[in-house]
Design goal:
Blueprint: H1 13-19, E1 26-30, H2 36-49, E2 57-61, H3 64-75, E3 86-89, H4 90-105, E4 111-112, H5 115-128, H6 141-154, H7 158-165, H8 173-189, E5 192-193, H9 197-208, H10 210-219, E6 222-225, H11 233-243, E7 249-253, H12 268-271, H13 273-276, E8 281-285, E9 287-288, H14 293-303, E10 315-316, E11 326-332, H15 333-349, E12 357-361, H16 368-376, E13 381-383, H17 393-406, H18 411-417, H19 426-442, H20 451-456, H21 465-478, H22 489-508, H23 512-526, H24 532-542, E14 562-566, H25 567-570, E15 575-580, H26 597-611, E16 614-628, E17 631-634, H27 640-643, E18 651-653
Parallel strand pairs: 1-7, 1-8, 2-3, 2-6, 4-5, 6-7, 9-10, 11-16, 11-18, 12-14, 12-15, 13-14, 15-16
Antiparallel strand pairs: 16-17
Length: 660
């Protein structure tokens, strides 16, 4: 076992002050690149080194990866059993709270619906109120789901959300409310919870059950929250409830990087922290270890224009006073793309690794010319908007088999595993599901016969008789308790693939071999679990909406490619060279923000995030004309975020022969 290290070693004075803060509410305002994660990790280590039991610390993060990384790094500082820390995303901790109570009461395990499965169940709810999901005059499930989620996470009545954000659906409010009620009923009947439930249900449970609340308040004596500026109403209220009167909360964040209001994050949580906790101490960490001074001067000059904020100034730890960001006006959007490519080639020739170069933009459509120019130049790149592993269709198909095997009342999973069967469409699947429900109703209590036997009593379409029989045999093999030797999760996956799903992939997808390799990886993931239900819950938690798409370890691995990314997806990352394109009014900031002071302030925070991703070089670009199939339309005037930057802070390259 390694020796204990000084938890204050290597910290600057501002970080030390935050790490050693006394018990009670503490707000740490950590500017971009200031060592926020390092400060939080050392706060963990400092608490444990000073006698706080790891099992009495709750660490809340927005990604499971962040939680694992912090625990790993804390373990390198001191040899205590840091794995006993309650660490994870808000949703995973919410699931843990619900699971503990259900185990204590002897209730069956809770199934966790990922986003796609939740949308499917919502779609099934349409039929029960007489709404066709294909009705073009009614919001689709993919629209209604986020609407309901926003209402729950912001604790805003549904009618207010519709009036404020979806007024075009106001005449449908009664039907929307009915669908929402049916959706809740279906979740209850399936003993299932979606991601919103993993926040709302623990809050309701603890509020209604003082004995449970007292247990957690007694157990979790210190609560540390990462990225506090991104919390929504449910999350901040849950933190306050768990903390109780002691309010031993260390909230770390940066109000200047609150950019997720569209999914419910409320910057007022961090702005009003002292109002919620009048005794709160505030610490500022302003030394930036990432960017050169010129980049920080631009970032400081921009964010200074926001009215609602905690004023702070990023101070550089690095030196290079003569290097300034470059802003460039170019004649056309194609010229902008060619400029980016030419500068990238120069960077590569000077030794900058491809993985240390990024092109950032406000919206994905703004990257099209750059993608084409990079392709023509033979430069490899990656776009940080790919489908995550656990959200791929073939992974979700196999997960549906496993879910239905463990929960025969799971309508979404049952209908998904029917998709490969010939002659089975939505109407037939609905009929088969109704017959499954009838068979379940005939059983007594919670005891169900073997799944194969249960389904064998149902007559499938003639075209699907052979496949139905195979389905029954496979379910009998993998269903828990259906036979003496229950297969492990990894064995169950292998059974599904060998029973016909592998052949289905080969008949359906040109990249079937790659998909089969993915399923091998899923089986390896399953090796870490003895309990199939727990494995399925963890798979769903991997698709947590708080898990950011496109996350990667900061730094320039030589085998990384040039990155194309929206600014939202770039948050938390860094590159040596950053190109920020299409800085035109109405494009960044977006048109929908213009005229709304609050929205403009969030757009400016987004611009601040974009500029502070750069370590060495920052290019601020705008074209005068956007080309489209040979035609050109004038671009809007320069972004106000460019205009706000004093000329002396940047090099101004007038390649379009037109001044900013």
């Amino acid at each position: 076992m390694s020796a204990v290290k000084d938890p204050l070693a290597g910290l600057n004075p501002q970080q030390i002050a935050a790490v050693t803060a006394p018990p009670g509410p503490v707000l740490v305002l950590a500017g971009a690149g200031s060592g926020k994660t390092r400060t939080l990790i050392h706060r963990l280590a400092y608490l444990i080194a000073n006698g706080v039991s790891p099992s009495s610390i709750l660490l809340l993060t927005f990604t499971n990866k962040a939680a694992r990384e912090m625990i790993h790094r804390a373990a390198q500082i001191l040899p205590e059993d840091v794995l006993r820390i309650w660490a994870g995303t808000f949703h995973s901790i919410g699931y843990r709270i619900l699971r503990r109570r259900r185990v204590r009461l002897g209730e069956p395990p809770l199934a966790v619906l990922d986003r796609d499965d939740a949308e499917q169940l919502l779609k099934f709810s349409y039929a029960e109120v007489g709404v066709d999901p294909k009705n073009k005059n009614f919001p689709k499930p993919s629209v209604l789901g986020p609407l309901l989620s926003y209402s729950i996470n912001t604790r805003t009545p549904l009618e207010e959300v519709v009036a404020q954000k979806y007024d075009e659906f106001f005449d449908d409010l009664e039907l929307i409310s009915k669908i929402a009620a049916v959706y809740e009923q279906k979740k209850n009947e399936a003993n299932a919870a979606d991601f919103d439930d993993l926040l709302a249900a623990p809050l309701a449970l603890l509020t209604a059950n003082p004995e449970d609340l007292e247990f957690y308040q007694r157990t979790l004596r210190f609560i540390l929250v990462d990225e506090y500026q991104d919390t929504n109403a449910l999350q901040s209220d849950l933190v306050d409830l768990l903390a109780g009167e002691a309010a031993n909360i260390t909230a770390v964040g940066d109000d200047a990087q609150c950019i997720y209001s569209w999914r419910g994050a409320d910057y007022r949580n961090i702005i009003n922290f002292q109002k919620r906790h009048p005794k709160a101490l505030i610490y500022r960490i302003e030394t930036n270890y990432r960017s050169l001074p010129g980049i920080l001067e631009v970032a400081n000059a921009s964010i200074r224009n926001n009215c609602v904020q905690f004023p702070k100034i990023l101070l550089p730890a690095r030196e290079a006073p003569d290097i300034r960001p470059v802003r460039v006006a170019l004649a056309t959007s194609d010229a902008q793309a060619q400029f980016v490519v030419s500068q990238i080639v120069d960077c590569l020739e000077s030794g900058v690794p491809p993985g240390e170069i990024a092109i950032l933009y406000r919206a994905h459509y703004q990257s099209m010319e750059v993608q084409l120019a990079l392709t023509r130049a033979g430069l490899r790149f990656e776009i940080t908007s790919g489908i995550r592993f656990y959200e791929q269709a073939h992974i979700k198909d196999v997960a549906a088999w496993l879910r239905f095997a463990t929960n025969p009342r799971d309508e979404v999973s049952f209908k998904r595993l029917l998709k490969p069967l010939p002659g089975v469409g939505e109407k037939t699947a609905e009929g088969l599901w109704n017959r499954v429900c009838e068979q379940i109703e005939k059983t007594s209590g919670n005891e169900l016969p073997a799944l194969g036997s249960l389904l064998d009593q149902i007559k499938p379409p003639k075209k699907a008789v052979a496949e139905w029989q195979q389905l029954c045999r496979t379910l009998d093999q993998i269903a828990p308790g259906s036979q003496g030797n229950r297969p492990s999760p990894s064995e169950a996956i292998q059974i599904i693939v060998e029973a016909g799903y592998g052949e289905y992939l080969k008949r359906t997808y040109p990249d079937a071999e790659d998909r089969l390799t993915d399923l091998e990886e899923l089986a390896r993931f399953g090796d870490g679990f003895d309990d199939l239900t727990e494995m399925l819950a963890q798979i769903s938690l991997q698709t947590d909406p708080d898990e950011r798409v496109g996350q990667r370890t900061s730094g320039g691995d030589l085998d990384r490619q040039i990155t194309l990314s929206t600014v939202h997806q770039a948050k938390g990352l860094e590159w040596s060279v950053v190109f920020l394109i299409y800085l035109c009014e109405g494009m960044f900031p977006t048109n929908r923000a213009i005229g709304n002071p609050g929205a403009i302030e969030e757009e400016r925070r987004l611009f601040y995030v974009a500029t502070t991703r750069a370590k060495d070089k920052l290019y601020l670009l705008r074209p005068l004309v956007r080309q489209n199939a040979g035609w050109g339309d004038p671009c809007p005037p320069p972004s106000r975020f460019l205009v706000e930057i004093p000329d002396e802070l940047t090099e101004n390259w007038e390649l379009a022969r037109t001044p900013f």
